[in-house]
């Protein structure tokens, strides 16, 4: 009515009113009345947007790969954005140009350039396994892209969902990896066999060492037994020698004793013989008759009669016949 209009923006839109080339009103989710013939309205969306992408790149070794992901961005400086692109809307809230759609193109182009720069520095194998590193580097690169900074755009997140080679290369890599895995499996089998052989060898060596140790122990035991027997034999021999020496000493002492006894007996015999000789010499010098008389001094009557009869059988007193009365014989027999 009379060119007076009313507009209300949603909370995710930064609304600006330009009049005579200057901003007279602005705000996030604001609403106001304005005079249409002399006012220009600008609406800049400041909500976060997710932009998926799929790029076909070439690695340093000239291999084609496909990179799939998603970038999240938002306009944090609407004033910078309106200086670069036309965000003017009409009375019905529709954009009057295609510039707002160019924001996604610029973001997508900036992401593509950064991804290309990172991939071209890497060979195929590295590029296929560098998702995390590539993500971090893309975040750093996009924060410093002049085209995005001039639009007041902030990159909130970059996510890489897939990095894949072309089908032929993928099959070749799969075949190579498969062969490598098979070789590793074979090597593992060989390693297990070698380990088993080494373990068996170790067991055999341990058994041999144990057997050697047992044999050595047995030899040491037999040697010790022989040494003990030899020591016992030496001890027995020494004991026998000592016993023989003791017996010899005893025999020597006994011999000395016997010799002494013999000497003593001989001395006693010599003394007795000398005594007898002296007596015999003394008797030889004496008269026989006198000796007889001396010997008869202690005789009994029967001995005297016997001596008298003997005297009658020799010498001058010898008789031819001798008659003895029965009474005399009877008397002699009773004695």
TrEMBL record:
SUPFAM superfamilies the record matches: Band 7/SPFH domain
Residue ranges the record marks as coiled coil: 207-277
Domain called Band: residue spans: 11-185
Leader sequence segment: none
UniProt-listed Pfam families: Band_7 (PF01145)
GO cellular component terms given for this protein: membrane
Membrane topology: Single-pass membrane protein
Domain of life: Bacteria
Keywords: Coiled coil
Compartment(s) of residence: Membrane
Gene3D superfamilies: Band 7 domain
Protein name: Band 7 domain-containing protein
């Amino acid at each position: 009515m009379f060119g007076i209009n009313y507009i209300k923006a949603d909370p995710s839109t930064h609304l600006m009113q330009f009049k005579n080339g200057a901003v007279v009103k602005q705000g996030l989710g604001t609403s106001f009345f304005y005079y249409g013939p002399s006012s220009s309205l600008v609406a800049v969306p400041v909500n976060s947007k997710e932009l998926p992408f799929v790029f076909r790149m070439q690695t340093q070794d000239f291999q084609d790969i496909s990179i799939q992901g998603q970038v999240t961005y938002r306009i944090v400086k609407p004033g910078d954005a309106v200086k670069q692109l036309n965000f003017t809307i009409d009375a019905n809230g529709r954009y009057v140009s295609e510039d707002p759609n160019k924001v996604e193109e610029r973001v997508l182009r900036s992401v593509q350039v950064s991804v290309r720069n990172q991939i071209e520095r890497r060979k195929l194998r590295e590029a296929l396994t560098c998702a995390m590193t590539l993500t971090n580097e893309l975040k750093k690169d996009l924060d410093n892209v002049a085209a995005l900074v001039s639009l007041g755009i902030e990159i909130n997140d970059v996510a890489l969902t897939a990095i894949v080679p072309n089908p032929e290369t993928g099959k070749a890599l799969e075949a190579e990896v498969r062969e490598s895995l098979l070789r590793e499996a074979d090597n593992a089998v060989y390693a297990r066999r070698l380990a088993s052989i080494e373990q068996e060898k170790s067991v055999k060596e341990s058994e041999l060492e144990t057997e050697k140790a047992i044999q050595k122990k047995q030899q040491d035991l037999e040697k010790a037994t022989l040494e003990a027997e030899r020591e016992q034999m030496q001890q027995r021999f020494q004991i026998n020698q000592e016993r023989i020496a003791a017996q010899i000493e005893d025999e020597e002492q006994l011999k000395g004793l016997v010799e002494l006894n013999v000497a003593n007996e001989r001395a006693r015999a010599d003394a007795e013989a000398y005594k007898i000789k002296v007596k015999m010499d003394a008797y030889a010098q004496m008269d026989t008759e006198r000796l007889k008389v001396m010997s008869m001094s202690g005789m009994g009557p029967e001995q005297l009669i016997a001596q008298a009869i003997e005297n009658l059988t020799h010498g001058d007193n010898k008789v031819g016949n001798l008659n003895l009365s029965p009474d005399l014989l009877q008397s002699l027999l009773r004695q």
